[in-house]
Structures are given as C-alpha cells and as structure tokens.
C-alpha cells in the first residue's frame, strides 16, 4: 500500500505531500505521523503541502486532527507552502484551519517551530504569525 | 447548449482522484482560471465524498455547457442512497449526521456559481453544480 | 451588367481621385492617425471590391455573399478606426464621401439623361447608405471592445500590490470592495506573497468609501486566506466613521490587527520584522537600521 514518507530532522518531523491524497492515504498519514511523534518524541511537525492542488474539508480535518493530536503529545504542527488558489478556496469553503500554524515555506516554518517550542527565545512571540489564542 | 457529455461511476474512494482529474481536464479545456478550477474541483470533491459516504457511490454526469456566450462546467451527482429528510437543515453550516465538519453541502454551494439539490428519503439525492469559466 | 456597375467599373480611377480629394479636403482628416498612402490603398481596395460586387447585378442586398469582401473591408476599417480613436463622424465620412464622389461622376456622365440619372443616383444612394450603417454598427462594436478592455484594466490597476520593505507588502484599496473585486485583490495579494516571500501584508482601506457588513466579510476573508498561506495581515486606514459603522453593525474584527493609519501599520510591521527606524544624528533624513 502507498505511504507518504516521514523524515526525521533533529527534533522535527518533515512530511512532503507530493500526490493528491485519497482518503485512506490521508488517514494512514495521520496514523503514521502520530505514531512517529510518540516514538521519536518529536517537538515539531512540518507538513509541506506546496504540491497539493486540492484541500477539501476532509483533508482540512486531517490537518486539524494532526495538529490537535500532536499538541496533546507536546509537539507543534506547521503547515507550509499552501497555494494561493487553495487558500482562497478554503476560506470560501468556510475552513480556516483553526489551531494549525502556517508558514510560507519549509525554511520559515522551521523558524516558526523554533520560536514556538522555545529553542530560541523570542520576546516578540505574541506578534508572530497565526494568533494562537483560539487553539484547542 | 451542451458541448460535451460524459459519465463516471463512483463505487469506491479510489475513483475520487481520477474523477477530480477528469473535472480538472474539463475546466482546463474551457480555459478556467486556476482559482476557479480549484473551487470547482474542491466542491466536486466534497460532493463525491458525500455520495460515497451516505449512498455507497453513484453516477456523475460531467458536461461542458454554453449559455449566452458563457461557457462552464456542469456536474450532476446522482445516487440511490437513503436521501435527505430535511434538505434545508443539511444545507446549514456545521450540520452533519456523520462525523464530519458539516461543511460539505453548504461549502460546495459557496464555491460554485449555481447549486441545486433534489432529494427524497428512500429514493436518493441529485445535486447539480455549475461553475462558469470566469467564475461569475 | 447593369448601369451602376458599368459606371463604377469604367470610372474607377476618376471616382477614386474625387473620393481621395474629398477625404483629403475634409477638415476632419486625421493625417495624424493614418497616412495618405494607407488611406489611398484602403480606398482603392474598397472601391474595387464594390465594383466587382455590383457587377453581379445585385445592388440592393449587401448581406448577399458577393458583398462579403466589401463588408469585410468596411468592418475591418471601422474596427481599426474605433481602436485608433477616430470619432464616429470621421469614420462615417469615409463611406459618405465615397457617395459624394460617385454622385459627382454620375452627374457628369448622365447630365443629358436626367431621368436615368435620378434612378441611378437613387439605387446608388440606397446601397451606400446601407454600407455606412455597417460602418456605424462595427464602429460601435469596436468601441465597446475598448470599453470592456478598459474595465478589466481598471480593476487590474486599481489593486496594486506594493513591496514597501523586504518581507512587507502594502495593498491600498481604492473604491468600493465588492465580491468580484475582493477576488482580484485576494488573488493578486496571495500571488505576490508567494512571489516575494513576504510574511506581512498591509491592507489599506483609506480609499474605501464605506464599510458595511458585506465589505467587512470580504476583508475578513482576505485576512483568513493570507493567514492560511502563512503570512500576517494588518488592516490600516480605518477612519473614525468606518470604526463607528463597524461597531454599530456589530462586526467582529477582534481577530484582526487593525491600525488607523498606514504609518502605524508600517511601524507594527517593522517591529514584527525586527526592523528599527530612527532619526540619524546628522539629520540627513531617515536612517534605517536592522
């Protein structure tokens, strides 16, 4: 069966989604990722969706689930590289991915993770990126 | 006026990705912009998912239509599932009988130019969506 | 071959001379828009095709296939002229001055047969009047195309995305924000965020005349889409009356960073990027330090 590879980079896990996900593949990814977080004690999860052309409510829910589940296990999730067309569509659909951090690319996502999990202390943490006040 | 016509059977979730690709082909053929393509395909994805989940699949009619000099893609989703007892309720944001976000039907409606739903309990549901080339 | 056709065929040169003279004498001649050689070439082409069309015996129905070359040339000329900025009068004069030229030649040739002259003139006038209708129709069509294109251009240029600093974009919105416009704003903004890798966008609404709940919804959508991409969005240029309507309408903007002026939004953006702005000692202007 198809699987999305998960790379471990120091305290982070990196997933690059290159194909259009069908449901079972997405569910497998959710499962694999959470297992990896628990096994490796990763502090951050980076999901690169720059090659994904469609995110529907199911995909959105999977991303939200991954973020919530990782947070319970003390890992932050950042979704990076969302296409403009995908962002516009998600907003129209009514899905704003509450509780999921976002960044423009992997590099910026990595920086964001570093400030979020406190490897580098950032006094202006509050002003960074997505507001975290309504997270789960 | 109908410029092209095609049908697809949806029986399991592996059909979803080929179906989305087929919709993309049609949208590209009439020169739809990327954002509008993404909206149409996302709406189609929501509806085909509903069809699989509640009616174990069904039939989809894919058409390119032309009306008053406008071209667009029209998709008709037909299933013989349990039907929807209260269509108005199903069209409300956040309502779901399954364990989803309840964005499927109302979200799909927001994403496309024209949306029509007919349903009878016990007989099935037919949803028709139309999206014009320029999204208006 | 009927008389009109014969007359046209035999006196083509003479008619063209007079016609050209008429056109060149006309005060409205736009030699700034079209050269004399070009005008002569156009005119000769039209006259030849008209002569061969009338040779078929049909001097009534300009929609018959034999007139296709004639109407085609005319359509072409009118559309080009509409685009080049000729006035309707200048374009209309083109065919009407041909009418004058032919009348003049006919008068000369048939001065001794007034009855035939009257008949010939009548037929010829009807034919050319019909042709000048075609000119007007297509001229207006050409103008409409220009208007449509301008419409597109206006919505394009009225939503510029400006890179004010490394990683900071500003987007001044001028005019009413409807859903079609919001789409363009969103698409331009998000694309520019990708292109420049900017993480902050400032949406300045100083130029938006009024904010109702619909406009507010469009703003909120734009902010949400920007955040999904991984960038932060600040809305600036909120005037007093806009703040009042927003509160009176019960619109919740508490999740969105808002600032009264573009300047203060820029300050926030600088702070977020860790950029400092301060006066230099030499007082030679602003000195920006990272």
From TrEMBL, chain A:
Residues 13-113 form the STAS domain. Signal peptide: none annotated. This is RsbT antagonist protein RsbS. It comes from Pontibacter ummariensis.
TrEMBL record, chain B:
The keyword Kinase applies. The keyword Cell division does not apply. Residues 35-135 form the Histidine kinase/HSP90-like ATPase domain. SUPFAM superfamilies: ATPase domain of HSP90 chaperone/DNA topoisomerase II/histidine kinase. InterPro entries: HATPase_C_sf (IPR036890), HATPase_dom (IPR003594). Keywords: Kinase, Transferase. GO terms for molecular function: kinase activity. This is Serine/threonine-protein kinase RsbT. It comes from Pontibacter ummariensis.
TrEMBL record, chain C:
CDD domains: STAS_RsbR_RsbS_like. The keyword Phosphoprotein applies. This is RsbT co-antagonist protein RsbR. Keywords: Phosphoprotein. Transmembrane segments: none annotated. SUPFAM superfamilies: SpoIIaa-like. Residues 158-269 form the STAS domain. The keyword Transmembrane helix does not apply. It holds the Pfam family STAS. It comes from Pontibacter ummariensis.
């Amino acid at each position: 069966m198809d699987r999305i590879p998960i790379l471990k980079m120091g305290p982070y896990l990196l997933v690059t989604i290159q194909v259009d996900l069908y449901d079972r593949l997405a569910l497998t990814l959710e499962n694999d990722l959470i297992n990896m977080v628990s096994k490796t004690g990763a502090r951050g999860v980076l999901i690169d969706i720059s090659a994904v052309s469609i995110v529907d409510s199911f995909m959105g829910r999977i991303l939200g689930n991954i973020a919530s589940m990782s947070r319970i296990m003390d890992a932050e999730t950042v979704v990076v590289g969302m296409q403009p067309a995908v962002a516009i569509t998600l907003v129209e659909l009514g899905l704003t991915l509450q509780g999921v951090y976002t960044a423009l690319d992997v590099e910026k996502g990595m920086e964001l993770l570093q400030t979020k999990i406190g490897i580098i202390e950032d006094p202006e943490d509050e002003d960074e990126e997505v507001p975290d006040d309504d997270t789960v | 006026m109908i410029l092209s016509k095609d049908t697809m059977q949806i029986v399991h979730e592996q059909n979803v990705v080929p179906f989305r690709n087929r919709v993309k082909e049609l949208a590209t053929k009439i020169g739809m912009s990327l954002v509008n393509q993404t909206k149409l395909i996302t709406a189609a994805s929501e509806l085909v998912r509903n069809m699989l989940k509640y009616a174990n699949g069904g039939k989809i009619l894919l058409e390119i239509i032309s009306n008053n000099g406008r071209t667009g893609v029209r998709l008709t989703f037909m299933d013989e599932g349990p039907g929807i007892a209260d269509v108005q309720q199903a069209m409300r944001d956040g309502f779901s009988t399954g364990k989803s976000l309840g964005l499927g039907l109302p979200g799909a409606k927001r994403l496309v130019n024209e949306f029509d739903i007919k349903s009878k309990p016990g007989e099935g549901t037919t949803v028709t969506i139309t999206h014009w080339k320029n999204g208006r | 071959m009927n008389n009109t056709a014969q007359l046209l065929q035999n006196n083509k040169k003479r008619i063209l001379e007079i016609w050209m003279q008429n056109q060149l004498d006309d005060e409205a001649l736009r030699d700034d828009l079209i050269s004399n050689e070009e005008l002569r070439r156009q005119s000769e082409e039209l006259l030849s095709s008209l002569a061969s069309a009338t040779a078929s015996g049909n001097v009534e129905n300009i929609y018959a296939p034999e007139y296709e070359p004639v109407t085609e040339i005319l359509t072409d000329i009118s559309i080009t002229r509409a685009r080049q900025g000729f006035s309707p009068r200048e374009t209309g004069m083109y065919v009407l001055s041909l009418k004058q030229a032919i009348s003049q030649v006919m008068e000369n040739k048939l001065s001794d047969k007034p009855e035939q002259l009257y008949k010939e003139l009548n037929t010829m006038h009807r034919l050319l009047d019909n042709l000048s209708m075609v000119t007007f129709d297509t001229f207006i069509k050409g103008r409409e195309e220009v208007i449509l294109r301008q419409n597109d251009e206006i919505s394009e240029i009225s939503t510029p995305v400006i890179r004010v600093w490394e990683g900071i974009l500003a987007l001044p919105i001028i005019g009413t924000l409807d859903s079609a416009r919001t789409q363009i704003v969103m698409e331009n903004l998000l694309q520019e965020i990708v292109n420049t890798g900017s993480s902050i966008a400032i949406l300045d609404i100083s130029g938006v005349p009024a904010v109702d709940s619909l406009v507010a919804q469009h703003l909120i959508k734009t902010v949400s889409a920007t955040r999904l991409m991984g960038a932060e969005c600040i809305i600036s240029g909120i005037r007093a009356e806009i703040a009042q309507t927003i509160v009176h309408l019960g619109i919740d903007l508490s999740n969105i960073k808002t600032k009264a002026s573009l300047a203060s939004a820029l300050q926030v953006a600088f702070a977020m990027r860790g950029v400092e702005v301060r006066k230099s000692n030499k007082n030679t202007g602003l000195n920006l330090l990272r």
